[in-house]
Fold:
Amino acid sequence: MIRSKQITYTRMVLVVDDQELNRDVLEMILEDSYKVICAENGKEAIALMQKHCEELSLVLLDLMMPVMNGFEVLEFVRNDEELRKIPVIVLTAEKKAELKALQMGAADFITKPFDMHEVILARAGRIIELSEGRKLISAAEKDKLTNLYSRNFFYEYANRLYAYQPDLHMDAVVINIEQFHSINAVNGRDFGDDVLRMIGREIHAFLDETQGIASRFEADRFAIYCVQQPDYRALLDRFQNKINRFTPNVNIHLRMGVKPWKDNLDPVELFDRARAACNMVRGDYQNPLMVYDEDMRMREMLNQRMLNDLRKATEEREFKVYYQPKYDIQCDPPRLSSAEALIRWKHPELGMISPGDFVPLFEGNGLISVVDSYVWQEAARQIARWRDKYGFVLPVSVNLSRADVYDPSLVDNLTQLIEDNKLEFHHMKLEVTESAYTENVKQMLDVVGCLREKGFQIEMDDFGTGYSSLNMLSSMPFDVLKMDMKFVRNIEASETDRRLVMLILDIAKYLKVQVVAEGVETEGQLQILKQGGCSLVQGYYFSRPVPPEEFETFIQREVSQEREKEK
Structure:
């Protein structure tokens, strides 16, 4: 068995005494355990303490000396931030001097003459051990970069304030730096450290003006526990303005979450809520401050309930897939061309939950793939049911989320779904948001390219809301471009919006892809789009999203029209 070697080092002790005999006696007592250096008076002692500040473990200090006595040394040490970290044991034969020395910061005293060597060694060892323990605690207590409290010590002190000073109504404030990892990557870690130090200094300055404590929790997260402030926007602006002056050539943005004091909420609970509020404004450069309120608490409780109930909802089929028709408006009359599958949640206790409530939540928690898979299965079965019932195959569009792309079995799962329901690949269209193409571009292009090779049609959803350039569009694999409804909303009243829509239609013609316009509600909108060459539209002009049994009226009407044409 190999044993690890324990690392040891010889501690240094400074003996200060004007009598050579005393110095020799103490050196003889200590030399087997410590490295001993000596000084004849206080002036020499201070010089040696400054020289060996990081090495010294203990000073044995005589009080009665020429040039500079022991009390003067103690006074000097007490006023020096570095030297006062070194413990001092005073050497004296005067009983009255012992109390004064202890009051001035001495850790212990040894009485002259030095007749009990074991006692001297024991006292020296005990004081060194206590001092080193305090240094270890001190090192863990503060963040070295900002000199703010570490997380554990911060909560320890915050809990004490909460317990022993309940009349101090303390608020929890959390500050984050937006995209700090990118700032480090672009400008270097030294630059990032300078930014953190600057924020730390400004937080210290703020705390000098009020009652409170602060911590650097993580790389770029700061926590402040302070008495209630009249204007937190002003506080955030103070920190932001300091950053702007400090880094005039680099855009750095802060965001802040605040949970005001509330009776019976301890610091941990307050900061959990402040952090949640801070996360709510991630990426919101216009409104970077969020104060946690009752509405947010209710939102958090609802979110947790939905997360807890997701698995049960899929197993008990609480999710309902609605369908919104898409019509080819280049035909006269417009012809039912396809549909979009849209998820709804009919919760047994909470009632109908909007997808606007649960879809972003599941996307943020990586659970959206569970919902997507549910929709794919329902849509594939529904296409097959309508085919078998009416002899009419209606292609349906379903969402393909960014999270789905990372599933190595995605292509196989979708292929199996098509085969199980005896469909063609083009019967299920896959909608991918434009912004998804800008994250992990290579993997997205590879997966989408593979799906197209299988025969799936790819629709770029929400076009115009993401960040793709025209150059990127030419390399993105997609078959249909879905124009976001915000472009359609004002095309009757706004010449600018109308021209923008025409530009998008021209881009689609250049790329030789179809365009689907979302959110069409009026005859005027439909006619403008038709004249501009738009192929397909969906929106309340034709129908809101409806359950499959209600959607069948559109299929029946289409089948009936087809039969009339055949006569």
The radius of gyration is 37 Å. The domain at 301-555 is CATH 3.20.20.450 (TIM Barrel). The CA atoms of residues 325 and 542 lie 7 Å apart.
